[in-house]
Amino acid sequence: MRAVLLAAGEGKRLRPFFQGPKPLMHLLGLSLLERNILTMRDCGIKEFIIVTGCYDEEIREFLGKGDSLGVSLKYLHNSAWKLGNGVSAYAFHREYRNGEKFILMMCDHIFEPKVVKSFITAAEKLAEGEVLLAADKRLEKVWDLEECTKIKAETNKGLYLGKNLTEYNAVDCGLFIGTKALLNSLAEAIAEKKYNLTDGVKRLAEKGKLKLHFVEGFWIDVDDLPSLKEAEKMLLKSLIPPKDGLISKWINRRFSLRLTKILASTDLTPNQITLISFFLCLASAWCFAVVSPFWGGLLAQLSSIIDGVDGEIARLKFLKSNYGALFDAILDRYGDFAIVIGMTYAWFSGTGGVFALLVGLVALAGMPMSMLFKEKFKAISGKQFIPEDYDGVFRFVPANRDGRLLLIMLGGVFNLLPFTLILLAVISHFQTLMRLVKVGNQLQ
Predict the structure, then answer these.
(1) 369-389 mean pLDDT
(2) Which among 268, 266, 175 has a CA at the least distance from the CA of 218?
(3) Longest pairwise C-alpha distance within the chain
(4) For the chain, N or C: smaller number of CB within 10 Å?
(5) What gap in Å lies between CA 236 and CA 370, rounded to an integer?
(6) What topology does CATH give the domain 2-224?
(7) Could you state, in order of their start, the residue ranges of all structural domains in the chain?
(8) Residue closest to 260 by CA, chosen among 241, 232, 280
(9) Within 10 A of 338 (CB to CB), how many other CB atoms are there?
């Protein structure tokens, strides 16, 4: 399936805040066009038609042939772009292949990737001559409802569309699966000097050919400065994975997301950020070893926060890789080991007691167990281990990495290294045993 992106407009409402082409305006490190292309690339779409107008030359020069994005780009210039977006959409008829289904998308509408994936899957059941439109019936969550195109829907069919509808139960999200029927309907509307995309879609609704797919995730039309700011908030919020522990979710992410927002506009890669987090662990270990527990604790917690940024940047800028995930996991383990060794050395050097070494060894053995259990569980069951689903009341035990590093910070700040090491040794193994008991019946 190919995708058609409409990038012909002038973007007047953003002109006071952004002087360049609106499709190339950056949103957390990527232009609007790049973000939509990469979203669809992750859904398996590799061929794109970019319909240009006002900024034809600038867009072509910026994106090129799409090699840097791992896709193939072709451009169609619509010289009559001022008439309306229906004319720009109809320009695709010059490239249309008989019998094909294609995605039609506004370049300034941003979607959570899972929304696009679900939408493309729904298109598999689309009958010949029908058009599928992404719609949102969660009206209380729609940004700038007044400016949206409203839809009167009945089950999964669109009956009426228009910005000024008084009776409606959904809104148009600006994402279509088009067929020849859409192009024919646009041609009819243009012949009557009706140049908006909605004019063509209305005709399909009247014929009972407009199917609706109701979205579940977030989307937004980036049309002015407030909507740009809201898009930033939505994208950042979407970066929080369900597998997060309580400390990550309620403490670390409050800081890491702010850092991600700043670093998104830089060239720092996720692997480079992983290295920074690892070096902070080494610095923490050194501070503990030379009996500076206060700074050792703070650096441990800082490394924990930075450890969330690498994944956030990877998801935000479509830089995820299997190697990156492995690299992060391995350095996290080495970082944990270094910190515990530094703490154990400080305790032992101060007392000379063998008990400090034994506790340190038990703590070291327990440190990787949480991640090992999750990974093995996923490999065996095919399901992601979500602490809230499987740990029950024990999810409040701070034995995941985020919780352990918070304990280490508190132990360092209050200079309670022996107590902290004993606590780490106990809770890490306690959590592992509890998980074995709780999931045992499910894996029999």
Answers:
(1) 86
(2) 175
(3) 92
(4) C
(5) 26
(6) Spore Coat Polysaccharide Biosynthesis Protein SpsA; Chain A (3.90.550)
(7) 2-224, 239-443
(8) 232
(9) 19
Give the pLDDT score at 15.
Answer: 67
CB 407 within 8 A of CB 366: no
Tell me how far apart the alpha carbons of residues 207 and 357 are, in angstroms, rounded to a whole number.
Answer: 78
Please, which pLDDT band fits residue 128 given cuts at 50, 70 and 90? confident
Instruction: Decide if 2-224 and 239-443 have a common fold.
Output: no
Dist CA 149 CA 164 (whole Å): 8
- What is residue 408's predicted lDDT score, i.e. its pLDDT? 97
How distant, in Å, are the alpha carbons of 109, 402, 420 from that of 406? 39, 6, 10
Contact criterion met (CB below 8 Å) for 140 and 95: no
**What homologous superfamily does CATH list for 239-443?**
CDP-alcohol phosphotransferase transmembrane (TM) domain (1.20.120.1760)
**Residues 270/310, Cβ–Cβ less than 8 Å:** yes
Q: State which H helix or E strand residue 72 sits in.
A: strand 72-77
Q: Tell how strand 72-77 and strand 47-52 pair up.
A: parallel
109: tokens are: 């509408």
- Locus of tokens 């941003």: 110
Structure tokens at 231: 């898009």
